[in-house]
Write a structure and sequence with these properties.
Length: 123
Amino acid sequence: MSTTTSPPAKTRRALPPLMQLSEAAAERLTKLYSGAELGKLLRISISTKGCSGMSYEMNWVEAASPQDEVVNSNGLTVLVDRKATLFLIGTTMDYKVDKLTSGFTFENPNEKGRCGCGESFHV
């Protein structure tokens, strides 16, 4: 009698979340979602522009499209263009306030470099 054993099933490594919101980003988005952008959702995409080739884009939309991935983080929903998902895996969106500026920033582990002005990146 012969017995065959199959190799043990490979366990898959858990993927990082597509995107997360920092507490500061969630706080700012909460204000926007309940104020001037009431009833809209923030959609994040990547465009080809700038010195390094890619740039983050954010737009307000009425609803998710079939090409959007829905991300829930810190009790809020943001949309990510499906074409941008490979470039954004593991990214944290933050909101920073400095002496002269304020705005959303992206901490993207996939970035390999940025241009001098910081407006574009490459992977």
